[in-house]
Amino acid sequence: MKAVMIILDQAHYDQIVDNLSKLNIRGFTAWKEVYGKGSSDGIPHYGSHAWPSVNNSILTVVEDDKVPLLLNYLKELDDEAANLGLRAFVWNIEEGM
Fold it and tell me: How far is residue 55's CA from residue 71's CA, in Å, rounded to a whole number?
């Protein structure tokens, strides 16, 4: 099993959640209004007057074989609107209950 943390512009939220279902990924946890700035060239997402956009975050735990499908989908979405910012990070899950 792998944990996939997706950091996304709020504009992507509904589309990504819909596609999780299409990829047979049922369970996830989401946080809304996550603030930050990309490490290299991303614009700030602070929810302020100067930087009004905000991020969301989604954490899902999936079977190993679904990770490439999810990452490919996210890469394609990011390529369509790279200025919005979209990142995904994968961790090994050792044990769960």
Answer: 18
| CATH number of the domain within which 70 lies | 3.30.70.120
Query: Regarding beta strands 2-9 and 55-62, do their DSSP bridges make them parallel or antiparallel, or are they unpaired?
Result: antiparallel
The count of domains in the chain is: 1
Q: List per-residue pLDDT tens for the chain, 97 residues long.
A: 999 999 999 999 999 999 999 999 999 999 999 998 877 777 888 888 888 889 999 999 999 999 999 999 999 999 998 888 899 999 999 987 7
Amino acid letter at 5? Answer: M
Q: Is residue 97 part of a domain?
A: no
H/E/C letters for each residue in 3-24? EEEEEEEHHHHHHHHHHHHHCC
